[in-house]
Design goal:
This protein is 35% helix and 13% strand. By secondary structure, it is α+β, with helices and mostly antiparallel strands. It is elongated and about 75 Å long. The relative contact order is 0.10. The protein binds manganese (II) ion.
Length: 595
């Protein structure tokens, strides 16, 4: 006690000293106070969006109602939680909920299953199957939702114990109304019309392991009196016109949706009158258009990412190794309470920047090189996806600037193509025209009307963005207000690019023609990526606060380097850098697709 008091006092004093010295509380220990000349250079993440519970629940309810409307009264939708994934032996990866279940419930726990039956009368239109709390398990792996808590998080008012799911589905199969064991009904909509029950501390972990003491069944009327109301579903089944919706993303072998595929396959074997269909397109269409609520979450994910990028730029000139720079991203994401990254950070210096998904961060940071950082925070299941390329020293060389400005102009052209009714191919083609013009002008291609450009620009310009970094979409979608996507052209002068061309007379001629330019730009990789939302008459750039033009980047780095205290990033001369087998995978050819 005494000791902690002392520590407390010491902390208070040091906090006071820090305050007197003018240290901003929101700025990391490594970053010096703002100079008298102006506000801090590195942009602090604004506070997380404050959302009222009613607003959040209304959003979830509206989503569930929309899904219910789309599947109709003669259908049932079954959605499973993500399965835990093994990291190694008895250790799992951090749990991440299945996106669509999260989209409808905001529940972050394994083992929960949601069933929607829009045709049901009597209130059983939504049932959440939830594992019963297990104090001995909670001792090891943490808190499990109690029913009241799950109701407060999700807004679903009918919660049955998870083990009821199988018998429930068996009853549906034979068109029988299912009545769960009364102690398996953890919470019921029927409670809403009864006076509040005495609190059973369902949001606190139980302190006693006795099963009878665990917070479980809220009292409710006898289940026998509960109407099941499935008549319209059963009638449709009798006509072979009912539908069982399951999330099946397409293809037979999804690693992520294995349990859905197995469930659907097992169900499809029997003639039940309930025909299996995929719910995927319903969610894809809904998730493409972001609500104001979702846009606030996405903006926050982008804001955290911007701070991470800016901190990385500020320290890059002091780093010797890429991982030191990457650490600034990870630090910022943790510090701003991001869920995680939306995808592994890409931090590549010099030639490493020409590998699209370079993830090793084991390379040297050289003062004369460009560094490419593609990093996005995930917040409330929404991912940002932001890329910038900047000079480690703070100053672009003329050759670096020439490549950079082609990519920048291509991105601007992509931006100008954004409007409702346009498509992602329109955005890509607008950017591509500028890339091709630039490559021709710089001597890196000899003919605009061929695929030569693909040697230097081998990916698409855009992908949708949301709960997946490469978000769901419907086929041949056109842009509409509230659709969010990336604009990310790039040019990558891979040092070995010409070695892999087929040895035909034509390509020998091409190689000879572009060789001088290739030697000049070799090892330069540039990508610029912003996240935009379509508006009524164009777009809004969610990541526009992060410097993007050469003057803005150079100016920012000069000022941000001064803002970082000299002792904040002591250089380390040890040999943690020695990774004999770690550096070679990045040399493989990049995949063709989205970045
Ligand atoms: Mn991207």
């Amino acid at each position: 006690m005494r000791r902690s008091n002392l520590i407390g006092k010491a902390l208070t004093i040091s906090a006071l000293v820090s305050f007197c010295a003018g240290l901003s509380s929101g700025v990391a220990a490594g970053v010096a106070p703002a100079r008298a000349s102006g506000p801090p250079v590195i942009r602090e993440t604004p506070p997380a969006p404050a959302v009222k519970d009613e607003e959040r629940l209304a959003e979830l309810r509206a989503r569930r109602e929309r899904v219910a409307e789309k599947i109709g009264p003669s259908a049932i939708l079954v959605m499973f939680s993500a399965e835990p994934r093994v990291y190694t032996n008895d250790v799992d990866y951090e749990f991440r909920q299945e996106n669509n279940l999260y989209y409808l419930t905001a529940l972050r726990q394994k083992g929960a299953t949601l069933v929607l039956m829009p045709g049901n009368t009597g209130g059983l239109r939504e049932i959440l199957f939830l594992p019963r709390r297990d104090p001995s398990a909670e001792t090891w792996t943490g808190h499990m939702y109690g029913p009241e808590e799950a109701r407060q998080v999700s807004g679903v008012n009918e919660i049955w114990e998870a083990r009821e799911f199988e018998p429930f589905m068996r009853a549906i199969r034979t068109r029988r109304a299912y009545r769960p064991q009364s102690d398996a009904v953890l919470f019921s909509f029927a409670n809403q019309t009864t006076p509040p029950q005495p609190a059973t501390s369902s949001t606190q972990p139980a302190t006693t392991p006795s099963p009878s003491q665990t917070p479980t069944a809220q009292s409710r009327p006898s289940p026998q009196s509960q109407p099941t109301g499935s008549d319209s579903l059963f009638a449709a089944m009798a006509q072979n016109e009912a539908t069982l919706y399951v999330l099946l993303p397409g293809g037979d072998n999804s690693r992520e949706y294995r349990q859905e595929q197995e469930f659907a396959a097992a169900w499809a074997k029997a003639a039940t009158g309930l025909n299996v269909r995929t719910a995927w397109p319903i969610f894809a269409e809904m998730r493409m258009r972001k609500s104001p609520y979702e846009l606030r979450m996405m903006q926050h994910a982008v804001d955290i990412s911007i701070e991470g990028h800016e901190r990385a730029w500020a320290v890059a000139s002091r780093a010797q190794w890429e991982y030191e720079v990457e650490a600034e991203i990870d630090y910022t994401l943790k510090r701003r309470n991001a869920d995680n990254w939306g995808y592994p950070n890409i931090v590549g210096c010099g030639p490493d920047a020409t590998t699209l998904h370079y993830q090793e961060s084991q390379g040297r940071v050289r003062p004369g090189d460009l560094m490419l950082i593609d990093a996005g925070a995930e917040y409330e299941h929404y991912s940002a996806d932001v890329t910038r390329t900047f000079p480690v020293s703070g100053k672009f060389t003329p050759a670096q600037a020439e490549i950079y400005n082609v990519v920048l102009a291509a991105q601007d052209a992509g931006f100008r193509a954004i409007r409702p009714g346009a498509s992602l191919p329109d955005v890509h083609n607008a950017a591509l025209e500028v890339i091709k013009d630039g490559l021709l002008r710089l001597g890196l291609i000899t003919d605009k009307n061929t695929d030569q450009y693909k040697i230097w620009f081998m990916h698409g310009t855009s992908h949708y963005l949301g709960m997946n970094v490469h978000d769901v979409s419907v086929r041949a979608a056109t842009l509409a207000p509230d659709v969010v996507f990336t604009v990310e052209p790039g040019i990558y002068i891979r040092p070995d690019a010409l070695d892999y061309l087929p040895r035909t007379p034509e390509s020998e001629k091409f190689i000879a023609a572009v060789r001088p330019a290739f030697e000049k730009y070799k090892g330069i990789g540039v990508r610029i990526e912003d996240d935009v939302v379509v508006t009524q008459d164009g777009y809004r750039n969610l990541s526009g606060a992060l410097p993007r033009t050469i003057p803005d980047i150079e100016n920012f780095i000069t000022r941000a380097q001064r803002e970082v205290r000299a002792d904040a990033f002591p250089s380390y001369r040890g040999r943690f850098d020695f990774r004999p087998f770690g550096l070679h995978f990045a040399r493989m050819s990049p995949p063709f697709g989205s970045v």
